[in-house]
Amino acid sequence: MGYKIKDHADKSAAPEPVVALSSKEQFLFFVEEHRGLVWGGILLVVVLIGGLVILNWLSQQKQEEAWEMQGKAQHMYLDRPLDDIEKGKANIQQASGMFQDILTQYPTTPSAKISSFLLGNSFMEAENYQGAIEAYSQFLQKHSQDPVLIGLVQQRLGLAQLLNGNRGAAISAFDAVLENAHALNKDQVLFELAKLGESEEKIDEAVNRYKQLIQEFPLSPFSTEANLRVKVLAPEEAKESEKSETIDGPPGTAEMADSPGGEDAKDKKEEGQ
User: Fold this and answer.
1) Which pLDDT tens digit goes with each residue over 178-195?
2) Is the separation of the CB atoms in 183 and 215 below 8 Å?
3) CATH superfamily to which 70-183 belongs
4) Residues near 198 by Cβ (< 8 Å), separated by ≥ 6?
């Protein structure tokens, strides 16, 4: 009699075949499983983009308002009647107030930079030299990225310090301009330093400054005035300089005069002319 062997293995425990999901299917499965989190992230992105758009729009609005206010302030500052001193003073005072409002209400706008400089100028016009010093100093602290404009502000600061009676601070401000490699107003600063030395009867110092101006900036409009001042302050040096230039003359003149027959040739050339 034969026996039948029974298979006692649990067929239900057999491993199920693994189904590989594509990246797209895995993403869709994740979205389906975390639907609330995904929609929350999308909403957050939309809010951030909307916030950036609104901030940019508000920034543009502030810049336009600041430029408009600055335009009115500049018009008030420049349009001063020459025949009415009191009206001119009132205009300057009103313009100063508007420049200060721009710095207070729109401190991060491009017009605030210009208003800071013009505020110092308006204080100078009103002979408020301490106010001008503070305005120029604040400009230098906040706007150090523009070396060309910084040179101009430093010059104005030096003049304000000088008019306020602080010669040492004025000299320091002027020297800062001369040390600024990008400054375009070094010739004017040298002229200011020379005039300062002249006013204090420091003739040698003044003459040296004038000579430095003539040597370094021969094409400057201040160079012509510097030449005249050197002739007045140091006439002997000016004569010697002119004499040396005459002796040097055009190339070859000295050699022609020293050569045999050079004088005769020179005389004949002059007669022919």
Assistant:
1) 999 999 999 999 999 999
2) no
3) Tetratricopeptide repeat domain (1.25.40.10)
4) 206, 229, 233
